[in-house]
Amino acid sequence: MDKFNKVFKRSSGKGRAWTRIPEVVQAVEKKFVPLIQPKGAHRPYEVVIVTHLTREIEPIEVNIVPYHGSSVNNNGAGIDENLYSRQLYVLGKEAMARMAASNNLISGLGGLGVEVAKNVILSEVKSVTLQDATTTTWDDLRKEKYSTVVVTETSGVSNLLEIGNWCHDNGVSFILAETKGLFSRIFCDFGPEFSVLDVNGENPVTTLIAGVTKEEQGVVTCLNGSPDAFEDGDFVKFSEVQGMTELNDHDPIQIEVTGPYTFKLKVDTRGMTDYIRGGVVSQVKTVKKLSFKRLEESIAAPEYIIADWGKLEHTETINIAFQALDAFVSQYSRRPRPYNAEDADSFVEIATDLANRMEVRLNVKVARIFSFICSGQVCPMNGLMGGVVAQEVMKSVSRKFHPLFQWMFFDSIECLPFEFDGETGALKSTLDETDFQGSGSRYDGQIAVFGKNFQQSLGDEVVCGCELLKNFAMMGLGGGDKGKIFVTDMDLIERSNLNRQFLFRPKDVGQAKSVCAAQAALEINPGITIEHHVNRVGPETEATYNDDFFENLSGVANALDNVDARIYMDRRCVYYRKPLLESGTLGTKGNTQVVNPNMTESYSSSQDPPEKSIPICTLKNFPNAIEHTLQWARDLFEGIFKQSAENAAQFLSDPRYLERTLKLPGSQPLEILESVKKCLMDDRPKDFQGCVTWARLLWEDSFNNTIQQLLFNFPPDQTTSTGQPFWSGPKRCPKAMTFTTEDDLCVDFVFAGANLRAEMYGIPQVRDRTRVGNMAAAVHVPVFQPRTGMRIALTEVEAQSQFGTLDSDRLEELKTILEDRGLNITPIEFEKDDDSNLHMDFIVAASNARATNYSIELANRLKSKLIAGKIIPAIATTTSVVSGLVCLELIKLVGGETNIEKYKNGFVNLAIPLFGFSEPVAAPKLTYHDTQFTLWDRFEVQGEMTLKEFLDHFKDRHNLKITVLSHDVCIIYSFYMQKEKREERLKLPLVQVVRNVSRRPIEPHVKALVFVLFCTDDDGEYVRVPYVRYVIPPSQLKTNA
């Protein structure tokens, strides 16, 4: 990528630059052509290179085809949902269709311009024109009707103002973006009249209604209120209201929130009929209109968002500094030299004059630092701002999310590993200007900011990470003689990874992520050292990622997608006292956390509350939202195609399976053996017709018989003991469905279910939908008769209690009749992203059929996959921003920063847009006796000793009486232990006690044991103390096996 940047820079201007065009084309093709090439695509994707040469250059057509439709104005009908699924969940089809019709010009292909181009191209737009030249001309702007023009390298204020004015007057969105060292600015002008169709991208709030009053401003009471569910000024619409039906047909109504469960309607309800029951209220998204000022008007008095509330005083100074830079370049025909005091004096003088004229206060220190580093380029800053700018491009053409209005100024000068005078900004270091001069290497941009010594330190780092590899490679991390990057990921590349992860290509689909990412990173920078693994990092791989491995690391960078893995890595980093850079994304939202040994709390120190689970009784009998029916459908899939098949397969292959099953608690043995009997005997199909019969009867039981039984127990007019309708509030009265081949839901369910059943039993499948429908129609279905006295759970407690009944006689019968039938049965693992496997077909059909039972709005396949597949929405821009923020913190760690106030945990939401930063929380300090400690501290114990000697060691040296000693999940010693057992253990070597109690050998890679202590003081009071790391004596290491 660095070569790519340099090629473009060398290609601007006249004369011999013409000879470098083939190299430019080759660089573009190498980096952009392989990005996305969906199968079956037929519309070429244009990347146009515009340069200032004496000869005209034809546009370069590049085979990137992210859009399948024959027309770009088809409301997204041709969007490849598998390729763009994660982005579709963020933007929606309508927004992506508008993006697919957009033509965009990016002027300036330095580090920032390339980052913007990369993200915009990955996002699925119609065309991107890349222009790299000293000056953007009118011909550049008039060649095509552009939707958005992005300028990342300026060539004088007057030219910039002309471009801004032209765009403003011609309906073209204009974005100015620049990074100078660790400083950046962004300006957006989307015209005098710009409509935002969806301000925040959040799903509209929907809730059930408990009541509506008849007043001048009717008060609505919700069933499941949430303090932040609705906001004052929101508009809402109603549906399914019984009684006050006038609300169902009413235009959207504005509300005023009066409490967590109530809000007022800005409409008179006194003339409406009385509210009876039911109803759903939903938030209505409204259009927000914005009027942008042109650059010429805005530059003198900018309206800006605050990027970092901890640096409010920096904002106006950064604005002045960028203008002073233009003036400096105009006067001296060059930028200030890195850390040159004379240039800095001249720069501050210019900035001071500008500040006085604009009547703003100048922070001289910040201005001088700007002069010192503005000639440099920092990869993470380009990645960060490239993501922000690309998101603004997407907003300008999709009208989705609130634009940046209108300026943002950002700096990260706390990354600098030097001290500066608080008043003048003079460098307080033994380094001089020569330490920041480049030598023609790819790292000259960073050296101009941080110096040569820092770059050497960066190269010598040894880190473990994955998704951040692109930035690591461009920064030169692990590029020194002692440096190395370890990357591990057990996942394989899927097509949905291609549009948001730059290192992967279509040819890589199905390959290991870590292998392909490492290879791509080495192409970017062959000078770094990478070792790739395909292991999951967890307890089962501790022989690989052992003491020797972690002790040689400089730090760890996580990019994990589940909390358990994050907690595990966090605990390992705490144990080995290694820095951890934690990050995560969710759509347009992202967060970063820096964990620094002996300084900050760890990732596990604070955790989000667990997700709310859906009550069993709601899933089984009383769903009221599509999320409920999708979870029910997913549970059905897991139960009939995976769990029951696994039980049957284990029964067939494991002679002791029956014995172990009978030892399970409660009714589990009966439930498991009943499912095994069904798989092997009752429901075992002989051919595909048998699979269709099974699926057809399953449909009847799920969507007709069960509903009839429920209505038999609780008729539609049922009332409670208080006289209230039973079917009210969250309980929706269902209706039984009737099977017909004219209903797609019916046929879809049987078609998918029958083929999946055939797959389980190794029976040839039939993928002719019409034929399967005809086969299903011929199945004899017994007439259902509701059963009297059947108990249906109404509450969670009742639902749970139904799992505790065991029929001993039936269990004995099953033990007798089950036998090995010589059958092979294959459990099916749910896979959401393979459209050919019919998994999602079954889920969608089952969920929507159940939703039809309960009059719940159906969900399309895309939404169903999101919920049932528990997909995390993702977009390339957020990944770019978060990766940039993480690497800025990495710079501080490499620089050895010891001031916690210099570190930043980041929180971003590109949709709003919102940027928030806070210093990490310091590691909490605890005390025992007069000794302070944090989570980073522990007792280090060495030497061969018995358990008694170990206990005496803490009593004598630390005045602590150990009452309970544990290792892993085993209690090694406790005061309440039987005396004989306690006395026996006290005499044994500590390592031998661990072996005996755990009943397993200590693995050869284990060099130390961890013990948790429960201690009391002299008064018998409980004392909280650190854990113990006990180094295994050499004599015991030999006997570990």
TrEMBL record:
Catalytic site: C617
Keyword ATP-binding: yes
Cellular component terms (Gene Ontology): cytoplasm; nucleus
Species of the source: Folsomia candida (Springtail)
Enzymatic reactions: ATP + ubiquitin + [E1 ubiquitin-activating enzyme]-L-cysteine = AMP + diphosphate + S-ubiquitinyl-[E1 ubiquitin-activating enzyme]-L-cysteine
Keywords: ATP-binding, Ligase, Nucleotide-binding, Ubl conjugation pathway
Phylogenetic placement of the source organism: Eukaryota, Metazoa, Ecdysozoa, Arthropoda, Hexapoda
Gene Ontology MF, one: ubiquitin activating enzyme activity
PROSITE patterns for the chain: UBIQUITIN_ACTIVAT_2
Pathway terms, separated by semicolons: Protein modification; protein ubiquitination
UniProt-recorded name of the protein: E1 ubiquitin-activating enzyme
Pfam families with a match to the protein in the record: E1_4HB, E1_FCCH, E1_UFD, ThiF, UBA_E1_SCCH
Nucleotide-binding as UniProt keyword: yes
The Ubiquitin-activating enzyme E1 C-terminal domain, residue ranges: 903-1028
EC number in record: 6.2.1.45
Membership in a protein family: Belongs to the ubiquitin-activating E1 family.
